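sorry for the late reply, my laptop died twice this morning and i had to redo everyting from scratch. anyway the thing you sent over, i finally got around to it. pasting the sequence first so we're on the same page, its 205 residues, then the predicted structure underneath. double check i copied it right bc i was rushing
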Amino acid sequence: MGGWGSGKRWSSKSTTGDYRRLDVRRLQRDRLLERRFWFNWQWTCNGERVGDINIRPEADRVILSYKHRRPGDDWKHEEYPVFLERTRCHYGGERVWFRCPARGCGRRVAILYGGAIFACRRCYGLAYESQRQSISDRADSRAWAIREQCGGWGSLFDPLPLRPKGMHKRTYRRLERAYGIACRTSTIEFAARMGISPEEALELG
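ok and here's the structure:
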């Protein structure tokens, strides 16, 4: 893989599951973008840490800092900004996006995939891997979809926004129940990642 900004497009044989994901919706949901100091984000597999990255949010961007290496090579330090874009939702609130930092791209995306650099799915030529998506990832996606359908972003720790005008009460109640289930599943996963109890995770929200 090339260094940051190399502009290289990689093989389409790889899938999104082969790369570490940095999801701006998760950072927004956990209110981590509101911080103005470094924090550490980790990836785990079967309870074991398999990678981590330091992130410093600023008003219109986040700074990523981490080390990586190819097999047989020395560790290389990377530190660069990823700009953010904020868009208004139809029923209020806002949604945050990454701008892909790869040279010649700049696409507005929710997820960046980490190899030598963090770049969008198109830059890496990745296919989706929904069949292997984890339970927690599906819960997160489901909760965000319901929240957007009801006109709100912000945080999944917040209650579902009020029923939008024109939505039937029965539909809203069904979405509200599904949203609660998805949020509980996501909170349990987040707590396990951070090594805390679900109750402590809710307090952080």
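The longest helix spans residues 169-194.
thats about all i looked at so far, will dig more tmrw
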